[in-house]
Request: fold
Amino acid sequence: MSAVNLLSLNDISVELGGRAVVRNVTLDVARGESLALVGESGSGKTVTARVITGLIDRIGGTVTSGELRFDGQPIAQGDPAWQKLRGRRIALVPQASLSSLDPVVRIGNQIAEAVRALDPGANVGARSRELLEHVHMPRIENVLKSYPHELSGGMRQRVMIALALAGRPELMVADEPTTALDVTVQANILKLLGELRRETGMSLLMIAHDLAVVGMVSERVAVMRDGEILETGSTHDVLTAPKHPYTKALLAARPETSAPGAPLAVLNRSTGELRAPDAAIPVQTDARTIVSLTDVSVTFRHAKAPAVAPMSMEIKAGDSIGIVGESGSGKTTLGRMIVGALSPTTGSVLVNGRSWGGRRAIGKTRREVQMIFQDPFGSLTPWRTPRQTVAEVLQRWHPMTQKAAAAAAGELLDEVGLPLQAMDRRPSGLSGGQCQRVGIARALASEPRLLVADEPTSALDISAQAQILNLLMRLRASHGLALVLISHDLSVIRHMTSDALVMRHGEVVEAGSSEALFTAPEHPYTRDLVAATPTLPKSRG
Reply:
């Protein structure tokens, strides 16, 4: 072990529920260094983070072999030394900022509690404000008085980082700190982590599933799969000249590695091998208009500005349209208007020439426009299986017996790639990608002509994302669907859609072909979005 290493893991193995989930992991983090631990969901990244922070007991795990050293001193599972280390010298930034904060306690009180526990000699009020200043939090006095749900995702993530800084740690472990954040917010958080390292001299261990993201903040990368470290090296070398086939497969599964509209190569989660993409299926388009929006706007009660300013658009059969923008830009509000879940304050929304305003009267026209929701797990009924969920929709639109609906649901779930053994599990027993497949099958059950997909891959890892995007492309071609894709990921929009709208503060600031928007953006805001999008360096071979 080098004398400069702040953290060293030597042949660490962990069991969880009687199953080996981490095997012989060896990692070093030098003082002041930034190391990224990258891999898919279930690879063992978060379990490794819990070992490093002494929290493996909290999730029922057991370290079965190996040694962890911090600042040269060995620390075992359950060692009382963790009480002095955790929070003070080693801090954790958990992944889910909303669920990690107490929903009924104001932000100021939560930070004050951390300061009293970790920095007892400090002036609580002054230190709380100082921590928020460290993370460049705007409107600090308002934030201190706010509850977590009153803050944006980016602001909540800054609060989590401020809490982690309360004990002046030497090592920060950031577990997926930018997952599901807008590209500009993500860029700001990554920039913030880099600035904090330079200002405080702390080391950073960042856990992520996106290799392009870690390239913005880390000096070294360790690639993990199935509980093992497969490759470690400098970030530049791993991203431009990966040695392990799995690392190459992770990079090749990203949308920007394929031509727009082409099926993506898919990473086999079981074997770690890359499966060549299937042949593309041509999409049939015609001039029939499915949905027409004319001068629509939405202004919520007591709001000072419209959530969506007056705008018009037409969606024709076979169209693929992207809607891009940051949180609060009006993307989801526009999507909800398209599917009839929200009535416009002004203007009209027509489906097949008939107004959504009379949707109770238009009967089966309602089935032709369906939505895939952003939260794949939260949008499913927790006590109903996928087969029951889809069968319910089938019976709503097609007269059939319960037995026939269950059989038809199984066929539809098979079409979207849900394994047979998962069809009769509850959502809690499914992965994020599997839950999203159920959501897609549910939307298809009414035989729609238009799908509105709201951030369908924002919280999925690379292999699951490629599978879902391929599925949407295949279904669009085979079913003749029009697709409206709402996303903050510009690489996904560019790959999946032919035309796109860029929204900011409820207004459409730029519209045109997806390729032109992202190769030659005209509006300054679009240029900012493109500049903030993580990209991979060009491979050396």
The radius of gyration is 24 Å.
